[in-house]
């Protein structure tokens, strides 16, 4: 096997001959300017050159497969769920106690009938609005201000998975509080509990609509303080326009009520308290709530992409 000697030379330095000095002899103990330091097989140099030519001919390396939405969504949902699990009990207590207190106050004003249905349905959906709209707006506002969006930007996760995962995790905490509020309201106002199962559709659909709105407000707000303010205003609108009976509202306020995403969830739930609910109207309200949820989550995804690149 052939070998190639590799010599080390003094960089940018003059030789002894240039300085008028004699070259050291073999018996001279002093070091020369040049000497053998290692021996490299010629085959190794040829193999390295051949490998470099093959890499250049093959072109750039291919990237891995793109992350899919559903596995990414599940991963983000689990991470957010475990992160917010510490604050689950305070969230449930505050949101539920607030709605229960509102129903107790309204009991002295409303006796029964359609107004009682509106109060119970609006109070139950208010639990969803407190978490999905108010707290999610604050979360994304703080995440943007602290640079937390850069962490998600480095992960192979689609933007929709980040928004949907966080929204689903926050909305999951509202299910127990909404059920407790609905049962307490039915007992307080003497309403039937036969069709409380409709909450299985009202909670995710209203939660998606309100969570998308809350995420968009938090991501579009220039400062976290504005995100908190917008979340509080949104929850106050859900309280005033959702809990109060619409029959006592002016026409202008009714038009504003129709623009609120949670209104259609409240209407769908309130219709089920009747002796013979009109399921066609119930399904229509739920369909509108689902459409608003898709639009609001799409806007939140766009707002996330806009905030992540800045």
User: Stretches where pLDDT falls below 50 for ≥5 residues?
Assistant: 1-33
Q: Which class best fits the helix and strand makeup?
A: mainly alpha
Kindly, what is the distance between the CA atoms of the first and last residues, rounded to a whole number of angstroms?
Answer: 59 Å
Order of helices and strands: EEHHHHHHHHHHHH
Share of helix, binned: 55-70%
Order of strands, widest sheet: 1-2
The value of Rg in angstroms is: 34 Å
Number of helices: 12
Largest sheet entry: 2 strands, antiparallel
Annotation, overall tally of beta strands: 2
Content of β-strand: under 5%
Indicate the mean pLDDT: 79
Q: What overall form do the CA principal axes indicate?
A: elongated
Provide an overview of this structure.
This protein is mainly α and 310 residues long. It is built from twelve helices and two strands. The protein has a two-stranded antiparallel sheet. Helix 2 (69-84) packs across helix 6 (159-172). The protein is elongated and about 90 Å long.
């Amino acid at each position: 096997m052939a070998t190639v000697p590799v010599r080390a030379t003094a960089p940018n330095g003059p030789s002894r001959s240039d300085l008028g000095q004699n070259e050291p002899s073999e018996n001279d103990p002093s070091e020369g300017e040049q000497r053998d330091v290692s021996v490299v097989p010629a085959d190794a140099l040829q193999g390295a050159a051949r490998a470099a030519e093959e890499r250049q001919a093959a072109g750039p390396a291919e990237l891995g497969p793109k992350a899919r939405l559903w596995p990414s969504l599940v991963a983000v949902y689990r991470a957010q769920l475990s992160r917010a699990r510490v604050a689950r009990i305070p969230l449930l207590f505050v949101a539920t106690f607030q709605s229960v207190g509102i129903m107790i106050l309204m009991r002295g004003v409303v006796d029964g009938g359609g107004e009682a249905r509106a109060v119970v349905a609006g109070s139950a959906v208010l639990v969803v609005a407190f978490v999905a709209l108010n707290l999610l707006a604050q979360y994304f506002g703080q995440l943007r201000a602290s640079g937390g969006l850069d962490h998600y930007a480095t992960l192979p996760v689609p933007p929709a998975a980040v928004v949907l995962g966080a929204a689903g995790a926050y909305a999951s905490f509202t299910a127990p509080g909404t059920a407790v509020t609905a049962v307490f309201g039915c007992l307080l106002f003497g309403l039937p509990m036969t069709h409380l199962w409709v909450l299985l559709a009202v909670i995710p659909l209203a939660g998606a609509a309100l969570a998308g709105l809350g995420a968009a407000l938090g991501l579009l707000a220039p400062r976290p303080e504005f995100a908190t303010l917008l979340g509080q205003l949104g929850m106050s609108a859900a309280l005033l326009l959702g809990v109060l009976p619409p029959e006592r509202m002016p026409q202008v306020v009714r038009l504003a009520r129709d623009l609120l995403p949670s209104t259609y969830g409240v209407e769908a739930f309130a219709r089920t308290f009747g002796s013979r609910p009109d399921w066609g109207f119930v399904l229509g309200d739920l369909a509108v709530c689902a459409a608003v949820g898709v639009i609001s989550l799409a806007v939140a995804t766009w707002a996330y992409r806009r905030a992540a690149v800045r």
